[in-house]
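Let us practice reading a record.
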Amino acid sequence: MRIVSTLPTATEIIYQLGLGSSLVGVSHECNYPKEASKKPRVSKVDFDYGTAASSEIDDYVGEKMHNHHSLYQLKDELVTALAPTHLITQKLCDVCAVTPNDVQRVIKSLTEKPELITLNPTNLEEILKDILMVGSSLGRGKEAIELVEKLRSKIEQIKLKTHKLQRKTIFCVEWIDPPYASGHWIPEMVDIAGGSEVLGWKGKPSRKVSWEDVLKADPEILVFMPCGFSLEKTILEIRNCLSKDSAFRSLRAIRNIQVWVVDGPSYFNQSGPRVLAKGVEILAKIIHPEVFESPTKAEATKLSSTYFL
C-alpha cells in the first residue's frame, strides 16, 4: 500500500493502526506523531497563519470562501509521483483541510486511480465509525476494532465518574476574534466530562457569536481552544484581543479564575483518536478537579486574575 493523507486526523489514525511505514505523503498540517513530519508534504498554503492575528485569518478565510477559492493547494505533481493506492480526505469543513473538489481533480489526472477514503464525522460516535472504516479499508480491521474498544472504555470510565455530578456551565471558544461557539463533537465532550455547554451546538458546525452573547450566558468556566492555534499563540491572542476589555473582565469565569487555554488542534478541533483518548479527560479535569486530578500544564493552562487587570 501507498497511502496519502490530506488531513491530520487521518494521519493520526494511520499511525495508531500501525501503518506509518505505508504512509507516503501527508498534508502541510500533519505533525503528529513526530514521524509524520518527515513525510513528503502534498499540500501547501499561500498565507502565513502562524503570525497573523485571528481577525486577519477570519477576514482571509471569509474572502476565500466568498470567492469560492480553496484555502490550500494540493501539489499535483508530487501526488502523481507518489502514486498512491489509497488517498484519505474529508468533506466536513473547507476551512480545515484540502477540499474534496481539489482531491477529485488530482485523482482524475492519475493513471492508476487510488481508493478514496472520505471522513465526515459530526459527533463522537461517527469519529469511532471513521476509525473502523479506515481500518477496514486498509486491511487493519482487527486493530481498528481494538482501538475503538479502548477509546469507548475510556469514555465509559469518565461517564461513570461524572454522570451524577452537578453540572458546571462552560463556554468553549473555538475562535477568538470574532468569537465562535463550539460545534460538532465538542459540546458532547463537555457533556461527558460533566459540564453544560452554554452556546455550543451538538452535531453542527461551530458558529459565530458575540461577546454580548457570552456575557448573557455568563458561564462558570471559559476554555479557549481555537482551531489551529498552539497554547502560546492562543494566550497571545487573548492578551491582544480581550485582556483589557472591561466587559469581558466582568465574566464570572474571570472573577473566579476559571479561564483555561488548551491545545485545540491536538485534543479538540480535529476528529482523531486523541479527542476521545485525551480531550474528554482534560475537560473532566478542568470541570471537576474535585473528582479528577488537576490538569498538567501541558494539558491546560489556567490564566490568573492578574492577567486581566
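A brief commentary: The chain has a mean pLDDT of 91.
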